[in-house]
Specification:
The chain is about 60% helix and about 15% strand. By secondary structure, it is an alpha+beta fold. Keywords: Kinase, Membrane, Transferase, Transmembrane, Transmembrane helix.
Length: about 350
Protein backbone atom coordinates (compact mmCIF):
# COMPACT_ATOMS: atom_id res chain seq x y z
CA UNK A 1 0.00 0.00 0.00
CA UNK A 2 1.40 3.40 -0.99
CA UNK A 3 1.40 6.44 1.28
CA UNK A 4 -1.54 7.96 -0.68
CA UNK A 5 -3.55 4.75 -0.45
CA UNK A 6 -2.77 4.54 3.26
CA UNK A 7 -4.05 8.10 3.74
CA UNK A 8 -7.35 7.43 1.99
CA UNK A 9 -7.80 4.13 3.84
CA UNK A 10 -7.25 5.90 7.16
CA UNK A 11 -9.91 8.51 6.41
CA UNK A 12 -12.32 5.83 5.26
CA UNK A 13 -11.90 4.12 8.64
CA UNK A 14 -12.55 7.42 10.45
CA UNK A 15 -15.75 8.06 8.49
CA UNK A 16 -16.97 4.50 8.98
CA UNK A 17 -16.42 4.49 12.75
CA UNK A 18 -18.13 7.83 13.31
CA UNK A 19 -21.00 6.84 11.02
CA UNK A 20 -21.57 3.72 13.11
CA UNK A 21 -21.47 5.69 16.37
CA UNK A 22 -23.79 8.45 15.14
CA UNK A 23 -26.21 6.05 13.48
CA UNK A 24 -26.39 3.49 16.26
CA UNK A 25 -29.51 4.92 17.97
CA UNK A 26 -31.36 4.78 14.64
CA UNK A 27 -30.86 1.02 14.36
CA UNK A 28 -30.70 -0.27 17.95
CA UNK A 29 -34.37 -0.56 18.90
CA UNK A 30 -36.51 -3.03 20.82
CA UNK A 31 -39.71 -3.42 22.81
CA UNK A 32 -38.22 -1.54 25.75
CA UNK A 33 -36.17 0.84 23.54
CA UNK A 34 -38.37 2.62 20.97
CA UNK A 35 -36.93 4.63 18.12
CA UNK A 36 -35.62 8.02 19.22
CA UNK A 37 -37.61 11.12 18.41
CA UNK A 38 -35.95 14.10 16.73
CA UNK A 39 -35.25 16.05 19.97
CA UNK A 40 -33.98 12.90 21.68
CA UNK A 41 -31.58 12.19 18.83
CA UNK A 42 -30.29 15.79 18.96
CA UNK A 43 -29.59 15.35 22.67
CA UNK A 44 -27.75 12.10 21.94
CA UNK A 45 -25.85 13.65 19.01
CA UNK A 46 -24.36 16.40 21.14
CA UNK A 47 -22.20 14.01 23.18
CA UNK A 48 -20.40 12.19 20.29
CA UNK A 49 -19.95 15.57 18.55
CA UNK A 50 -18.19 16.84 21.66
CA UNK A 51 -16.03 13.69 21.58
CA UNK A 52 -15.14 14.53 17.97
CA UNK A 53 -14.05 18.04 19.00
CA UNK A 54 -11.71 16.64 21.67
CA UNK A 55 -10.47 13.82 19.45
CA UNK A 56 -9.62 15.87 16.36
CA UNK A 57 -8.19 18.80 18.31
CA UNK A 58 -5.70 16.31 19.69
CA UNK A 59 -5.34 14.43 16.41
CA UNK A 60 -4.49 17.45 14.28
CA UNK A 61 -3.00 19.92 16.76
CA UNK A 62 -2.03 18.99 20.29
CA UNK A 63 -0.36 15.61 19.67
CA UNK A 64 1.97 16.85 16.91
CA UNK A 65 2.70 20.19 18.55
CA UNK A 66 3.23 19.10 22.16
CA UNK A 67 3.22 15.32 22.69
CA UNK A 68 5.62 14.33 19.91
CA UNK A 69 7.95 17.18 20.95
CA UNK A 70 7.91 15.86 24.54
CA UNK A 71 6.22 18.93 26.05
CA UNK A 72 4.02 16.77 28.24
CA UNK A 73 3.07 19.50 30.70
CA UNK A 74 1.60 21.73 28.01
CA UNK A 75 -0.11 18.76 26.37
CA UNK A 76 -1.80 17.82 29.66
CA UNK A 77 -2.69 21.43 30.51
CA UNK A 78 -4.21 22.22 27.14
CA UNK A 79 -6.21 18.99 27.22
CA UNK A 80 -7.62 19.81 30.66
CA UNK A 81 -8.64 23.25 29.41
CA UNK A 82 -10.12 21.74 26.25
CA UNK A 83 -12.09 19.08 28.13
CA UNK A 84 -13.31 21.62 30.68
CA UNK A 85 -14.49 24.01 27.96
CA UNK A 86 -16.25 21.24 26.01
CA UNK A 87 -17.95 19.86 29.11
CA UNK A 88 -19.13 23.34 30.12
CA UNK A 89 -20.42 24.04 26.60
CA UNK A 90 -22.32 20.74 26.54
CA UNK A 91 -23.79 21.40 29.99
CA UNK A 92 -24.95 24.91 29.03
CA UNK A 93 -26.35 23.65 25.74
CA UNK A 94 -28.33 20.95 27.50
CA UNK A 95 -29.60 23.36 30.14
CA UNK A 96 -30.40 26.51 28.18
CA UNK A 97 -30.79 25.55 24.52
CA UNK A 98 -32.34 22.12 24.26
CA UNK A 99 -35.82 21.47 25.65
CA UNK A 100 -35.82 19.52 28.92
CA UNK A 101 -36.07 15.74 28.75
CA UNK A 102 -39.46 15.01 30.35
CA UNK A 103 -38.69 11.29 30.48
CA UNK A 104 -35.60 11.81 32.64
CA UNK A 105 -36.34 11.31 36.36
CA UNK A 106 -35.41 14.20 38.69
CA UNK A 107 -32.12 14.00 40.58
CA UNK A 108 -32.47 12.71 44.14
CA UNK A 109 -29.20 14.30 45.29
CA UNK A 110 -28.57 17.12 42.84
CA UNK A 111 -25.11 18.17 44.06
CA UNK A 112 -23.65 14.67 44.46
CA UNK A 113 -25.23 13.42 41.24
CA UNK A 114 -23.88 16.44 39.34
CA UNK A 115 -20.34 15.80 40.61
CA UNK A 116 -20.62 12.11 39.69
CA UNK A 117 -21.93 13.06 36.25
CA UNK A 118 -19.02 15.43 35.53
CA UNK A 119 -16.45 12.97 36.93
CA UNK A 120 -17.82 10.21 34.69
CA UNK A 121 -17.78 12.49 31.67
CA UNK A 122 -14.23 13.56 32.49
CA UNK A 123 -13.10 9.93 32.37
CA UNK A 124 -14.84 9.48 29.01
CA UNK A 125 -13.08 12.51 27.55
CA UNK A 126 -9.74 11.29 28.89
CA UNK A 127 -10.37 7.95 27.15
CA UNK A 128 -11.13 9.88 23.94
CA UNK A 129 -7.79 11.69 24.27
CA UNK A 130 -6.07 8.34 24.85
CA UNK A 131 -7.72 6.89 21.75
CA UNK A 132 -6.61 9.91 19.72
CA UNK A 133 -3.03 9.51 20.92
CA UNK A 134 -2.99 5.77 20.16
CA UNK A 135 -4.51 6.16 16.69
CA UNK A 136 -2.34 9.14 15.77
CA UNK A 137 0.86 7.44 16.90
CA UNK A 138 -0.08 4.20 15.14
CA UNK A 139 -1.03 5.94 11.90
CA UNK A 140 2.11 8.05 12.06
CA UNK A 141 4.25 4.96 12.50
CA UNK A 142 2.41 3.22 9.67
CA UNK A 143 2.89 6.18 7.32
CA UNK A 144 6.57 6.35 8.21
CA UNK A 145 6.94 2.61 7.66
CA UNK A 146 5.11 2.82 4.32
CA UNK A 147 7.33 5.70 3.20
CA UNK A 148 10.41 3.76 4.33
CA UNK A 149 9.33 0.70 2.36
CA UNK A 150 8.66 2.80 -0.74
CA UNK A 151 12.09 4.39 -0.39
CA UNK A 152 13.69 0.99 0.12
CA UNK A 153 11.88 -0.37 -2.94
CA UNK A 154 13.05 2.58 -5.04
CA UNK A 155 16.61 2.15 -3.78
CA UNK A 156 16.48 -1.58 -4.52
CA UNK A 157 15.20 -1.00 -8.04
CA UNK A 158 17.89 1.60 -8.66
CA UNK A 159 20.57 -0.77 -7.39
CA UNK A 160 19.26 -3.63 -9.52
CA UNK A 161 19.26 -1.37 -12.55
CA UNK A 162 22.84 -0.36 -11.79
CA UNK A 163 23.87 -4.01 -11.51
CA UNK A 164 22.25 -4.73 -14.87
CA UNK A 165 24.01 -1.76 -16.47
CA UNK A 166 27.32 -3.24 -15.28
CA UNK A 167 26.38 -6.65 -16.63
CA UNK A 168 25.37 -5.57 -20.12
CA UNK A 169 28.78 -4.19 -21.21
CA UNK A 170 30.41 -7.30 -19.71
CA UNK A 171 28.19 -9.51 -21.86
CA UNK A 172 28.80 -7.36 -24.95
CA UNK A 173 32.59 -7.36 -24.59
CA UNK A 174 32.81 -11.15 -24.43
CA UNK A 175 30.50 -11.64 -27.40
CA UNK A 176 32.33 -9.09 -29.55
CA UNK A 177 35.61 -10.83 -28.77
CA UNK A 178 34.12 -14.06 -30.07
CA UNK A 179 32.93 -12.45 -33.32
CA UNK A 180 36.25 -10.67 -33.79
CA UNK A 181 38.03 -14.02 -33.64
CA UNK A 182 35.56 -15.54 -36.09
CA UNK A 183 35.97 -12.80 -38.73
CA UNK A 184 39.51 -14.00 -39.43
CA UNK A 185 38.37 -17.61 -39.87
CA UNK A 186 34.92 -17.63 -41.50
CA UNK A 187 33.27 -14.41 -42.69
CA UNK A 188 29.94 -16.11 -43.46
CA UNK A 189 29.66 -17.48 -39.96
CA UNK A 190 30.76 -14.11 -38.63
CA UNK A 191 27.86 -12.45 -40.43
CA UNK A 192 25.44 -14.98 -38.95
CA UNK A 193 27.01 -14.38 -35.55
CA UNK A 194 26.37 -10.63 -35.86
CA UNK A 195 22.74 -11.39 -36.66
CA UNK A 196 22.52 -13.67 -33.60
CA UNK A 197 24.20 -11.01 -31.49
CA UNK A 198 21.58 -8.44 -32.52
CA UNK A 199 18.87 -10.81 -31.30
CA UNK A 200 20.68 -11.34 -28.01
CA UNK A 201 21.20 -7.62 -27.52
CA UNK A 202 17.51 -7.00 -28.14
CA UNK A 203 16.77 -9.36 -25.26
CA UNK A 204 19.39 -7.79 -23.02
CA UNK A 205 18.38 -4.20 -23.71
CA UNK A 206 14.59 -4.52 -23.91
CA UNK A 207 13.16 -7.79 -22.59
CA UNK A 208 15.50 -7.93 -19.60
CA UNK A 209 14.40 -4.44 -18.51
CA UNK A 210 11.33 -6.09 -17.00
CA UNK A 211 11.61 -7.37 -13.41
CA UNK A 212 10.77 -10.91 -14.52
CA UNK A 213 10.58 -12.77 -17.81
CA UNK A 214 9.15 -16.20 -18.70
CA UNK A 215 11.62 -18.98 -18.04
CA UNK A 216 11.24 -20.09 -21.66
CA UNK A 217 12.58 -16.72 -22.88
CA UNK A 218 15.57 -16.92 -20.55
CA UNK A 219 16.34 -20.48 -21.70
CA UNK A 220 16.19 -19.41 -25.37
CA UNK A 221 18.59 -16.58 -24.61
CA UNK A 222 21.05 -18.93 -22.90
CA UNK A 223 20.82 -21.44 -25.75
CA UNK A 224 21.62 -18.76 -28.36
CA UNK A 225 24.41 -17.34 -26.24
CA UNK A 226 26.04 -20.74 -25.69
CA UNK A 227 25.93 -21.42 -29.42
CA UNK A 228 27.63 -18.08 -30.00
CA UNK A 229 30.31 -18.99 -27.44
CA UNK A 230 31.00 -22.30 -29.20
CA UNK A 231 32.23 -20.42 -32.27
CA UNK A 232 35.70 -19.59 -31.05
CA UNK A 233 36.34 -22.79 -29.08
CA UNK A 234 39.21 -25.01 -30.27
CA UNK A 235 38.42 -28.55 -31.36
CA UNK A 236 39.80 -30.09 -28.18
CA UNK A 237 37.21 -28.23 -26.05
CA UNK A 238 34.20 -30.35 -25.16
CA UNK A 239 30.95 -28.51 -24.43
CA UNK A 240 28.04 -30.43 -22.92
CA UNK A 241 24.74 -28.54 -22.64
CA UNK A 242 21.47 -29.72 -21.14
CA UNK A 243 18.63 -27.18 -21.23
CA UNK A 244 14.88 -27.81 -20.86
CA UNK A 245 13.36 -28.76 -24.21
CA UNK A 246 9.99 -27.27 -23.24
CA UNK A 247 10.60 -24.90 -20.34
CA UNK A 248 7.66 -23.53 -18.39
CA UNK A 249 6.37 -19.98 -18.47
CA UNK A 250 7.11 -19.38 -14.79
CA UNK A 251 8.59 -15.94 -14.12
CA UNK A 252 12.29 -15.67 -13.42
CA UNK A 253 14.58 -12.67 -13.07
CA UNK A 254 16.44 -12.12 -16.35
CA UNK A 255 20.19 -12.57 -16.90
CA UNK A 256 20.79 -14.60 -13.75
CA UNK A 257 22.78 -17.40 -15.37
CA UNK A 258 24.80 -15.49 -17.95
CA UNK A 259 27.61 -14.71 -15.51
CA UNK A 260 28.03 -18.41 -14.64
CA UNK A 261 28.13 -19.39 -18.31
CA UNK A 262 30.61 -16.64 -19.16
CA UNK A 263 32.92 -17.61 -16.32
CA UNK A 264 32.77 -21.27 -17.34
CA UNK A 265 33.99 -20.47 -20.85
CA UNK A 266 36.45 -17.86 -19.68
CA UNK A 267 38.18 -19.93 -16.98
CA UNK A 268 37.37 -23.41 -18.27
CA UNK A 269 39.06 -23.30 -21.66
CA UNK A 270 42.74 -23.46 -22.49
CA UNK A 271 44.05 -23.15 -26.02
CA UNK A 272 46.58 -25.95 -25.63
CA UNK A 273 45.21 -28.36 -23.02
CA UNK A 274 42.08 -30.55 -23.02
CA UNK A 275 39.17 -28.57 -21.67
CA UNK A 276 35.49 -29.05 -21.01
CA UNK A 277 32.41 -27.07 -20.02
CA UNK A 278 29.26 -28.76 -18.70
CA UNK A 279 26.04 -26.75 -18.36
CA UNK A 280 22.87 -28.27 -16.91
CA UNK A 281 19.72 -26.25 -16.30
CA UNK A 282 16.47 -27.96 -15.35
CA UNK A 283 13.29 -27.61 -13.31
CA UNK A 284 12.54 -29.89 -10.39
CA UNK A 285 9.16 -29.17 -8.84
CA UNK A 286 9.21 -25.52 -7.85
CA UNK A 287 13.02 -25.44 -7.98
CA UNK A 288 15.10 -24.15 -10.88
CA UNK A 289 18.53 -25.77 -10.69
CA UNK A 290 21.58 -24.62 -12.62
CA UNK A 291 24.72 -26.74 -12.30
CA UNK A 292 27.88 -25.78 -14.20
CA UNK A 293 31.19 -27.59 -14.10
CA UNK A 294 34.31 -26.82 -16.08
CA UNK A 295 38.01 -27.47 -16.20
CA UNK A 296 39.84 -24.73 -14.35
CA UNK A 297 42.45 -22.52 -15.96
CA UNK A 298 42.19 -19.25 -14.00
CA UNK A 299 43.21 -16.08 -15.78
CA UNK A 300 45.63 -13.74 -14.08
CA UNK A 301 44.60 -10.19 -13.27
CA UNK A 302 46.98 -8.78 -15.89
CA UNK A 303 45.71 -10.97 -18.72
CA UNK A 304 42.02 -10.58 -17.93
CA UNK A 305 40.67 -7.44 -19.54
CA UNK A 306 37.09 -8.55 -20.01
CA UNK A 307 35.86 -6.94 -16.85
CA UNK A 308 34.01 -10.14 -15.95
CA UNK A 309 35.29 -10.15 -12.39
CA UNK A 310 32.18 -8.25 -11.42
CA UNK A 311 29.96 -11.11 -12.62
CA UNK A 312 29.75 -13.35 -9.55
CA UNK A 313 29.61 -10.47 -7.07
CA UNK A 314 26.77 -8.89 -9.07
CA UNK A 315 24.94 -12.20 -9.25
CA UNK A 316 25.28 -12.75 -5.51
CA UNK A 317 23.92 -9.29 -4.77
CA UNK A 318 21.01 -9.65 -7.21
CA UNK A 319 20.03 -13.00 -5.71
CA UNK A 320 20.01 -11.51 -2.23
CA UNK A 321 17.68 -8.75 -3.41
CA UNK A 322 15.42 -10.76 -5.74
CA UNK A 323 15.18 -14.11 -3.95
CA UNK A 324 15.87 -13.53 -0.24
CA UNK A 325 15.56 -16.85 1.58
CA UNK A 326 14.53 -18.58 -1.65
CA UNK A 327 17.86 -19.50 -3.20
CA UNK A 328 21.15 -21.27 -2.59
CA UNK A 329 24.31 -20.39 -4.44
CA UNK A 330 27.56 -22.32 -4.10
CA UNK A 331 30.65 -22.02 -6.24
CA UNK A 332 34.36 -22.71 -6.00
CA UNK A 333 37.28 -24.86 -7.07
CA UNK A 334 37.01 -28.62 -6.60
CA UNK A 335 40.33 -30.23 -7.44
CA UNK A 336 41.14 -29.41 -11.05
CA UNK A 337 37.53 -28.45 -11.77
CA UNK A 338 35.39 -25.44 -10.94
CA UNK A 339 31.75 -25.94 -10.05
CA UNK A 340 28.81 -23.61 -9.53
CA UNK A 341 25.39 -24.64 -8.24
CA UNK A 342 22.46 -22.24 -8.16
CA UNK A 343 19.01 -23.31 -6.94
CA UNK A 344 16.08 -20.89 -7.05
CA UNK A 345 12.59 -21.45 -5.70
CA UNK A 346 10.21 -20.31 -8.41
CA UNK A 347 6.68 -19.04 -7.97
CA UNK A 348 3.78 -19.24 -10.37
CA UNK A 349 2.92 -16.21 -12.49
Amino acid sequence: MTALQSKYTGWLIHVTVWAVILGMPLFVTGPDRPLMTGPQYVRFLLVPLSFMVVFYTNYFLLIDRYLTTRRFGRFTGYNLLLIGAVMLAVHLFFRHVLPPDLHRPPLVRPWQDTVRFFAGNLMLYILVVGAGVAIRMTSGWYRAETARQELEHSRTQAELQNLKSQLNPHFLFNTLNNIYSLIQLDTDRAQQAVHDLSRLLRYVLYDSSRPYVPLAAEVDFLRDYIELMRIRQPRHVQVFVSLPATPSQRPVAPLLFISLVENAFKHGVDNDRPSYVTIDLHESGDQLICRIKNSYFPKSGDSDRSGSGIGLSNLTRRLEMLYPGRHTFEYGQNGEAYTALLCIQLTDA
